[in-house]
Please model this.
Amino acid sequence: MPYHVSDNAGRRVVGIAFRPGSLAMQLKPSWRVRLSQLASAAIVLAGVRGLLIALVCLEARRMVLPFIVIGLACWLLPRTTRVSLAASGRSTAAMMGSTMTA
Model:
């Protein structure tokens, strides 16, 4: 059965659609609001840092090996990825499915 607009005559409207972006507006906060947001973020970060210092006890000797492993992984992984991509003949853009054209 085809849909006709006249079928909806007399019915209650339950929703209205707007074109995307037609109701968009941007508000620029004043410097006081920005300063307040910055201060609140700084207070939260200071609180988190304080809690971590109070609750986490780190021993330097026990942390050396994990930091060495993490550092080597961060240093070696990008290099091995480039080597394996070069060996396979594919570029990083091809690996990510890029469809950009020049």
Notes: The helical segments are 31-55, 60-88, 92-95. The longest helix spans residues 60-88. The chain has a mean pLDDT of 76.
